[in-house]
Amino acid sequence: MVNLFGPLPRETRQLLDGVPALIDKTFPLPGRFRSKLPSDIAELSRLLTSGRGERGLSYLGRPNLLSAYLRFFLPWNLYRLCRLLPGLDIQLRANDAVTDLGCGPFTFAAALWICRPDFRGIPLGFSCIDRSGPALEAGKKLFAALAGENGPWKIRALKAEIGAGKTAPGAALVCASNVFNEMYGDISRCGAETLKHNAEKSARLLEGYASGTGESALLVVEPGFPRCGEFIGLLRNALIERGRRPLSPCPHDGACPLLGCAGRGKKRWCHFAFETEDAPRDLRRLALSAGIPKERAVLSFAHMGRRESAQAKSADSELRIISDAFPLPRRHFGRYACSKRGLVLLAGEEGAIGNIGFGTLANAVFKKGERDAKSGALLAELGQG
User: Fold this and answer.
1) Nearest to 346 by CA among 328, 330, 331
2) At what angle do helices 74-84 and 10-17 cross, to 10 degrees?
3) List of residues 6+ apart from 277 with CB closer than 8 A
């Protein structure tokens, strides 16, 4: 079994633990404003969720909201990416180009520096695109404080709307983290056709930034709520139609078993959750003071490669765990999983099933022809390996 979200290595955890202090040092906050920080965080959280209609396009241009973002949402986004990126097969070589769409304060570049030491000595060129000038300026300062000003990575900040005045195609990696749910407004209220149209539009946009050499990859990360998970599934379909193949999390390149399954039992969507006990202590304390406790982090994502570079074929027995454990009859427990055969209900004893990490790639032995009466999922037991 391969755990997608393994524990943070010691060095990564130490660097993440130092992020809150680094931000305070880089962006000093006068004492008279510090007492308002929890309420500013709570307000920004509202504007990013239930109050999307009030947010406006330039919300990070407001100093109090930018401060709240830098001190709270940025470190949490770094933490989520640092849990995800080590488990992905990211292929970057010397002098490769990386394009980060909707980069904010260079979040992806900072996370990659923190959690992938194998890339720190490689010369890379980043094009970081965002419509917020203050966020880009903050990114320049933060990355210089984190990695130094004379490192091998060269970062170019571009103030622009995504898709307008863009860089020439040629990126080996194009990433978009927490972008499309903002680009399309309140994505949770998009109808099915609108969501599909937006996914197809996003696929064209991403391909426009990618390299034409056949070796480029795309990485899209979104919040882990239902509509974002559905969007990721539709985006995956649109990219497959354009010659892409899933590198992760999908263990196959067939139809997504979670799209359109809402009519049968509880709604399911592609997302991954993990405990946050290894997140920076100061960050967890700030979350409590803002009334936004974060005991778990959740995300949806798609890592896509070209046909010749992706694992287009997978074993019939291979599946990805996509749910928490839940009780079944006869003292058994189950986990839903994704496979090339479709949705799977993996069942077994509590210890064996409950100890599998969310997102783990596992092998299963299918019960021939048997399906779960409630969900319609294929029934399987944990296999060897």
Assistant:
1) 328
2) 170
3) none
pLDDT band at 168 (very low <50, low <70, confident <90, very high): low
CA–CA distance, 144 with 142 (Å, rounded to integer): 5
φ/ψ of 24, rounded to 5, equals -60, -40
Distance CA 258, CA 252 (A): 13
How far apart (Å, rounded) are the C-alpha atoms in residues 42 and 47? 9
What lies within 8 Å, CB to CB, of 85 at 6+ separation is: 111, 112, 115, 116
pLDDT digits (tens, 9 = 90+) for 262-300: 445 567 789 999 999 999 999 999 999 999 988 899 999
- The answer to whether 96 and 123 are in contact (CB under 8 A) is no
Q: CB–CB of 97/76 below 8 Å?
A: no
Report residue 17 as tokens.
């633990």
75: preceding bond cis by omega (within 30 degrees): no
68 backbone dihedrals φ, ψ, rounded to 5° = -65, -40
Q: How far apart are CA 55 and CA 17, in angstroms?
A: 30
**Residue 173 forms beta bridges with which residues?**
98, 217
The whole-angstrom separation of Cα 350 and Cα 306 is 39
- What tokens does 335 get? 């986990």
Q: Are 185 and 157 in contact (CB under 8 A)?
A: no
Q: Are 109 and 100 in contact (CB under 8 A)?
A: yes
Long-range contacts formed by 138-142: CB under 8 A, 24+ apart: 138/27, 138/66, 138/70, 138/105, 139/103, 139/104, 139/105, 139/106, 139/107, 139/109, 139/110, 140/106, 141/26, 141/27, 142/22, 142/23, 142/26, 142/27, 142/70, 142/105, 142/106, 142/110
- Among left, alpha and beta (phi > 0; psi -120 to 50; other), residue 312 is alpha
Strand-pairing partners, residue 128, are 100, 157
The per-residue pLDDT for range 311-352, each reduced to its tens digit, is 445 567 899 999 999 999 888 899 999 999 999 999 999 889
Q: How far is CA 252 from CA 90, 221, 318, in A?
A: 18, 19, 9
Strands 342-349 and 378-382: parallel
Q: What is the pTM of this model?
A: 0.93
- The 3-state DSSP class for residue 72 equals helix
